[in-house]
């Protein structure tokens, strides 16, 4: 059954390229029809009055562990995924990779069993952060579950995933080219992180197909003037993008600003968000503006993508349009999702409407409003 038109009027539309003030976003059957003049809106359209707010592509978070009080690794079930997805969409994130940090293979297998059949329009796949990491840069990851890459084990993991494993954080210095190729041939996007790689080791990883860096500066070899490490390689390569956690805690805002100037369009936002939990492998304790393990080790952020965008503008001098690209267009481009991250004719109608104080007023997922439309 065909849906009626939905129109989003009276907003400043960010298309992914520029801000547009005099057009209405016209949606039908989950897709953007076009940006049209108000007089061109069909008379039977359901009209949402954006009331001067921004209308932008929905956010894409390639590293988030939970939401709505649920942590997927602590409760790898379809019910938990429903609650996580609902909370993320409400926060403006219309595309996400559910992420699992290093864990027992039993927990990973249970998660794969769920994700091979679970479907949600906002779910983009699974991001495994580990277990093939460098123990010296494990951060909050438990040492007992960190493993050496093994081709037989990885082949078994890929078979069990049945295509739902879309991204993996690995320590490149622990992999040979043949083992990397096993993952790459399965279509897994590889990201370097929790790594003590030297500059040369990191550059070799990029040359062999690693296309991203996980939470730049956190849990990796440091940038030093005599040993540039993984961050230096990220700055120098043109083959990889880098995610960053823009909460002012994981990375100082001035470092965020400097990194943006060096990386340009290759830097994108993630939340790395967790939630308070007392069961399972990880005990995350909420500290008011972050999460830690009970011993104080930083273990995750309390960010939403909307907050990350606001922090980029308010604290790092990044223009709003560019901060929005970091939260939508750039991660969409990295994963090859051409229908996401843009407000163009034919793209998926995943949209977030927010005011000048960065408060979210409405979210559209595949053209459907998250909240009941207000009369125009």
Keywords:
376 residues, alpha/beta, Urease, subunit C, domain 1, TIM Barrel, six-stranded mixed β-sheet, globular
How would you characterize the overall build of this protein?
With 376 residues, the protein is α/β, with parallel strands linked by helices. It folds into two domains: 6-57 and 341-369, Roll (Urease, subunit C, domain 1), CATH 2.30.40.10; 59-334, TIM Barrel. The chain has ten helices and 23 strands. It has helices spanning 78-90, 105-115, 151-161, 177-185, 199-207, 229-236, 253-263, 305-316, 320-327, 329-334; strands spanning 6-9, 12-14, 19-20, 24-28, 31-36, 46-49, 54-57, 59-64, 66-67, 70-71, 93-101, 123-129, 165-170, 189-192, 212-213, 241-245, 267-270, 285-286, 290-292, 298-301, 351-354, 360-365, 368-369. The protein has an eight-stranded parallel beta sheet. Helix 5 (199-207) packs across helix 6 (229-236), helix 7 (253-263) packs across helix 8 (305-316) and helix 8 (305-316) packs antiparallel against helix 9 (320-327). The chain starts with 5 loop residues before the first strand and ends in a 7-residue tail after the last strand. The mean pLDDT is 95.
